[in-house]
Amino acid sequence: MKIGFFRFLIAVLLIGFGVVLVLENIGVMDFNGRDAWGYIYPSLFILFGIKWMIDRMKHRGGSYAWGSFFFIFGSLLLLDRFDIITFSFGDVFKLWPLLIIYFGFLFIGNSFKPKIIIQKKGNHEEVIDAEYSNSSFFTVGNHEFNKPNWKVEPTTIKTLAGDFYYDFSKAYIPEKEIPITVNALAGDVHILIPENIEFQIKASVKAGDIDIVGQTVDGINRSLSYVTPNYDTATRKLNFTLKLKAGSIRVDLV
Questions:
Q1: Are 81 and 31 contacting, i.e. CB atoms less than 8 angstroms apart?
Q2: Same domain membership, residue 175 and residue 55
Q3: Which pTM value belongs to this model?
Q4: Based on the domain organization, do 117 and 240 belong to the same domain?
Q5: Could you tell me if 13 and 52 lie in one domain?
Q6: For the chain, what percentages of helix, strand and coil (3-state, to nearest 5) are there?
Q7: What are the tens digits of pLDDT across the range 216-240?
């Protein structure tokens, strides 16, 4: 059952406030109820930061940069409230080095694109599995395939870390079997496939979860295979091989 974010936010605040009052009553900490706002607004920063990062991972807007900034800022403020460090609201300018870090990640994301290994034989193309290639194809960054009428081609992508988002409802899919391989140490794979497209998937994660059109597994060393009923006889079809060391794989029909 899904729960709205603001309802969840209120619940977390009430639970946290109750825990703090209990700790005060048993002498673990000294808390003045009149200073409650000093604890509440840093907690709000943290929760909103987490929400923005989760929304970005799920491709529902959000921002890694702003999300992580508010998470860090709120966490430092809370650490000050608990007398662990000294950090006030006005010290926000001390976080300016985060801009350098964000630009560094932005540069990595824009500079390292997916490496596609395609071997041409005659009039057709054959994908060479990067796992058996002599070349190195390690990259870092997020990869989104969701532009209108983007062309689906046989691909093999191997990354150190990154998120993948495929929206085949916006793609031009040729009349042939198209293999697509994703191999990553860490990341999330989210795929949208139209209901009229035949496909098969072999997915595996060392640690994480897999959800293929409602069929789910999670935990350690999990794998899941799925094939549509008319895959063998179809002329236009997608053949996925998805391997993650850590992360999640999700496939939805649209």
A1: no
A2: no
A3: 0.49
A4: yes
A5: yes
A6: 35, 35, 30
A7: 988 888 899 999 999 999 999 999 9
